[in-house]
Design brief:
about 15% helix; about 170 residues; alpha/beta; globular; single chain
Amino acid sequence: MILTEADNFPTDLYMAQGLNALLGGRYELRTVPSADLEAQLTDDVALTLLTEVDYRTGRRLDLAGLTARAHERGILTVWDLAHSAGAFPVDLNAAGADFAVGCGYKFLNGGPGAPSFLFVAERHQDSAQAFLSGWMGHADPFEMAREFTPLPARGATWWAPPPFSA
């Protein structure tokens, strides 16, 4: 079962619904009021899908606290940071988060068309398989190869352009 807030950002709900449909509807998506989240961290929950900051009110969930309580029950966590990344510091490693997603066009000031991002905790990188592959995940993106070769999970460095010099 996937546990989320009843008032979660609509796209997060759509993604969970679409993934479940793709998997044949085998999983339950339990939506509960945010006040009931902690009480709903039960043994039948496999994953939480939560947004750190409510897009309508600005209310902030306790990322570290909810992650810790989920982990006490063996529950994985996925956090949506679209309304928090860039607005204030977010330390996913210190919080023990398993996975996070977000966008670069809001508070990271990327503007329209800016890329999104995915965080995978180091402890999951060898076993988490990305089914959708893209240019920035290629082991050598500037090779422009026709076949995808994934960037190695461990010890990988993010490509950055050379420093600008006048």
